[in-house]
Amino acid sequence: MNKRLISLMLAVLTLFSVLLTSCSSTSNEDAMNDVTDEASRYTTTLNMYVVTEKETTPEAAAKVNDAINKITKAKFKTQVNIYFNTLDNHYALLDEKFAKIEADIAAEEEAKKALKKAQREAKARGETLATTAPETTSDETTAEETILNEYGLSELKYPAESSRQVDIIFVNGYDRYLQYCDDGILERLDDELSSGSKKLKDYINPVFMDAAVVNGATYAIPNNHTIGEYTYLLVNKEMAAKYSYDLSEFVDLASVAEFVEDVAKHEPTITPVCGDIELTNIRYLSLDKETLEFIPDRSIVAAYVSPTAGYSSRLTFRNIFATRQITDQLKTIKLFEEKDLIKKNADPSKPFAVSIMKGGYELNDVYGEDYHMIVLENPMAYEDSLYAGMFGVTQYTKDLTRSMEIITYINTNPELRNLLQYGIENENYVINEDGTLTRLNKTYMMDLLKTGNAFVAYPEEGMPVNAWDYGKKQNIDARLDPMNGFEFDAEALNWDYMDIMNNTSKTYLAGLADCKTYDDVVAFIDRAYEELTANTEFANSTKILVEGTPNFLYNEWHTMNWPPEG
Predict the structure, then answer these.
(1) Is the pLDDT confidence value at 417 over 60?
(2) Is residue 549 part of a domain?
(3) CA angle (466, 472, 478) in 5-degree steps
(4) pLDDT tens readout for residues 272-312
(5) N or C: which end of the chain has fewer CB within 10 A?
């Protein structure tokens, strides 16, 4: 039987198989269209630059690449050459590659200009100058081209990648991402997200997708994972009922003060306050002059951040003694300290009246039956988490759409996702009876946050089997940091104002720390409010309308991003 007849029979069998398997989810007409689309595709070769851990061996990486290509060739007629590099040389390699491509392009342009000039000069002399056609960088072939593999069987031919080709790259860190966007390295992906890759919007949390938008466009696909943690206020349901407290009236730390005192007075076996207590829902507006980093807790200029605050929320920064939600916490904490109600080393598995705990959604399963769970802070997505890992497509790609197909499949298909993350089953890992994964060796090691959507990957041994279910629920409540993307412009900032804020903060924070009793704190807060209100120099340093103040720069940034309506 000749090869042409064999190929025809295989094509008919493939078509029949696809039609049968499509009946349950699509019409025959749709199935025919799918087959037509697949048959009309050309083979192509893409490349992908990913970040690996140092333990990964070249042999293990090559096996994973081969296994991945079995999937991408069958699904997309796309071969992917994967370049595995550790993070410490990943960007150096990419930047060197980009520079080489740009140099080649510039040299080619110069050669074309020189050739045209030579042609004009030859023409002026009445001569004809021989020309050479420019070398093409396109290596696309059709699905009809085949080669014989090592077993003597016919298979599709895939082109070699071009020397000027960089398709899919791993990017992390806000500064690096912004640099690649501004330099035009990354392609805009919005059209793909509205067409062939729109499925990604169902798999990637909107908080991540919002963070990926730069100047109104999306240039990379973030690797979806569990965002941040909650801050819960736990209130003992049994004790609240026993002493006739309405649980709905408990909304913050100050609202439980009387309840805690009652429990402490009448219930000696119940821990009044389990664990330490710190200020919550607070953001500081201060900058270290040497490092240009935000000072987390060494300032009296701060904003109260409500649990519902999101990316577009405008924060109000002023001295903390003028913000009731903050002063109420300061007073309550001192009240508890004075009466020795805070038991920092108490066992949280034993009954307690209240506690402030940070953690994931799973805390509801642990404590929700016995304790009323009040969310003081929803999970907040900060810069380090938002930009922990992304995949983008560069301007040097052979095919943007085909590259986005690969990125989409990595983020939505468990088989491909786990291959890239964990390697080959029964060689690099095994799946346990409970559905978690155990690594067999360290010859192939990748970071979960650097290889795609975490929720499509297996949870590792030691993690809850339903870790991703918790993560998905948690991400529904997640908020994007209201100050995401805000940085002080060191040149626009008047450092005199920042120095005034920092020096004043040192004085008043020291005074607050010296307070011994609840009454001392109440009196100090009242006095500090009056003094700071009357302090013209300090007041000017915190004003919104005074150019160069930290508040001026913050509000200018916020107004630029979210201009007032009307």
Answers:
(1) yes
(2) yes
(3) 140
(4) 999 999 999 999 988 888 888 887 778 999 999 999 898 88
(5) C
Which residue has 């026993």 as its token pair?
Answer: 242
Q: How far apart are CA 38 and CA 72, in angstroms?
A: 13
143 domain residue, yes or no: no
The reply to whether 75 and 211 lie within a common domain is: yes
How confident is the model over 466-498, as pLDDT tens digits? 999 999 999 999 998 898 888 889 899 999 999
What is the pLDDT averaged over residues 55-70?
A: 97
Q: Are residues 424 and 524 in the same domain?
A: no
Asked whether the predicted pLDDT for residue 258 surpasses 80, the reply is yes
Candidates 412, 413, 405, 437; CA nearest to 423 is 437
Residue 36 sits in the same domain as residue 179: no
The pLDDT tens digits for 169-191 are 999 999 999 999 999 999 999 99
- Residue 23 is part of which domain span? 1-40
Q: Compute the distance between CA of residue 307 and CA of residue 478 in angstroms, rounded to an integer.
A: 10
Q: Which H helix or E strand runs over 196?
A: none
Average pLDDT over residues 420-437: 96
414 and 520 fall within a common domain: no
Long-range pairs, 60-68, Cβ under 8 A, ≥24: 60/423, 60/428, 60/443, 60/444, 61/444, 63/423, 63/424, 63/427, 64/419, 64/420, 64/423, 64/424, 64/444, 67/419, 67/424, 68/416, 68/419, 68/420
pTM of the model: 0.81
CB 43 within 8 A of CB 77: yes
Give percent above pLDDT 90 in the chain. Answer: 75
CA atoms of 563 and 561, how far apart (whole Å): 6
The CATH number that applies at residue 425 is 3.40.190.10
What is the tally of structural domains in the chain? 3
CB contact at 8 A, 370 and 222: no
Is 255 contained in some domain?
no
| Shared-domain flag, residues 52 and 175 | yes
